[in-house]
Amino acid sequence: RPAAAQRLAGLLREYAPADGSGHVVSSFELAALLQVREQDAGVPLAFLGSKPGAVATALDHGFPWVHLHHGAVSLDTVIAAHAAGVRVMTWTMDAPSWLAHYDRLGVDKVCTNRPADMLAAQAGLLA
Known about the structure:
TIM Barrel
């Protein structure tokens, strides 16, 4: 596994976006994230989880992101994460009708299998 983390860190450096936006590495496996950090402390990491306790794991390890299943996202969870400087992404959100709800909660990003539908829903929110 450490060899995989080393290879991943190298690829992230090699293919870093020119605009500086970078990548975020996420995993359900804390050990895998810590191995990536050992290879490159500059790679933003996110703990993936389906329970609000994932926020505590992200905080305990200084991760800038937590990626939560949409069923685990609540206003209290988002407020607590943001208060601690942790950004929240929710997955996998494929119902465009849900976008307004998660936008009101303050979710920073969504992961979806339906990007065109979600972009159309986002455009409707911005109109």
